[in-house]
Design a protein that fits this description.
Mean pLDDT: 78
Shape: globular
Helix content: 55-70%
Order of helices and strands: HHHHEE
Strand order of the largest sheet: 1-2
């Protein structure tokens, strides 16, 4: 029960710090980061072999990394283009498209 309450409080705090976004406002990085934080939190709650301290360190480290990358995307146009890049189609009619890599 301690793990559940602690995980909930940490997630609530981290959500407030990182800022809430609607699903429609999320880019791929935000979605990936939220999914990873959820997975780390779930592991903290369910995996009894994982110490609470290590689980909290993992949650905090990933959240700090997410915040740093978020700040970098605001301050750097190149970082924003890298993080918020449009999805790339790799297969078309079951054929691998090689031409897409010429634009990288």
């Amino acid at each position: 029960m301690v793990r559940v309450v602690l995980s909930f409080l940490v997630l609530l705090t981290l959500t407030r710090i990182m800022g809430r976004k609607e699903i429609s406002q999320m880019n791929f990085f935000n979605f990936f980061s939220a999914t990873t934080i959820d997975t780390l939190s779930g592991a903290l709650v369910t995996d009894q072999t994982l110490s609470i301290g290590n689980g909290l360190i993992a949650l905090l480290a990933w959240s700090i990394l997410t915040i740093i990358i978020g700040i970098m995307t605001i301050k750097s146009k190149k970082t924003k283009q890298l993080i918020d890049r449009e999805p790339i189609i790799l297969l078309f009619h079951l054929n691998f498209i090689q031409a897409i890599f010429t634009n990288w």
